[in-house]
Amino acid sequence: MSLIGINEIFLLINQRLYYMEDIAAYKAEKQLAIEDVEQEKRILRNAMLLAEQKGITPNSIGPFFSALIHAAKLIQCRYQSDWQKKSITKKHPQNLAQMRYKLIQLNASLIERLYQALIAGQKFDKTTSGSMIKMIHHPQLSETHKRKIVTALQAIHLSQ
């Protein structure tokens, strides 16, 4: 897979992470908890099922989506904390159901791109960790959390 293919994967990861500001705003406005264990279970279950249908080992993609979910919650917490400190919130957040639908579509696209990369022989190995970490762009996410996403990405593999 070309650099363009890898860029597409990280574009999708970044798009997914950038929805978290709107989700944080919606949850703040509606006074909802950031953590939604049942939603997280649905995301993981759906990702693993879709991965299995594509030919990716489900247990290898689970930690990747867990890392994305953890990063998403962290981002939401940081936005809400910043807003509380400044006594502001983002105005007019999108509807949560609409955002979740868009995230489901992003997840499916991400799994498809990962599958295409893997069947093309793309290796997400440790020699490219540094450059992959730099491809994750979110101001609320530390290098450590980016590394966790990349490490989980490197463990994804096709079913035998």
Q: How many independent structural domains?
A: 1
Q: Architecture, according to CATH? A: Up-down Bundle
The fold-level CATH name is Chorismate Mutase Domain, subunit A
Mean pLDDT rating: 92
Determine the strand fraction and express it as a percent band.
under 5%
Cα(first) to Cα(last) distance is 20 Å
Assembly type: single chain
Overall helicity? over 70%
Q: What count of helical segments does DSSP give?
A: 6
Structure class: mainly alpha
Radius of gyration: 16 Å
**CATH homologous superfamily (4th level) name:** Chorismate mutase
What is the top-level CATH class?
Answer: Mainly Alpha
Largest sheet: none
Low-confidence stretches: none
What is the global morphology? Answer: globular
| Strand count | 0
Q: Report the order of strands and helices.
A: HHHHHH
Short note summarizing the structure:
The chain has 160 residues and is mainly α.
Features:
mainly alpha, 72% helix, single chain, Chorismate Mutase Domain, subunit A, 160 residues
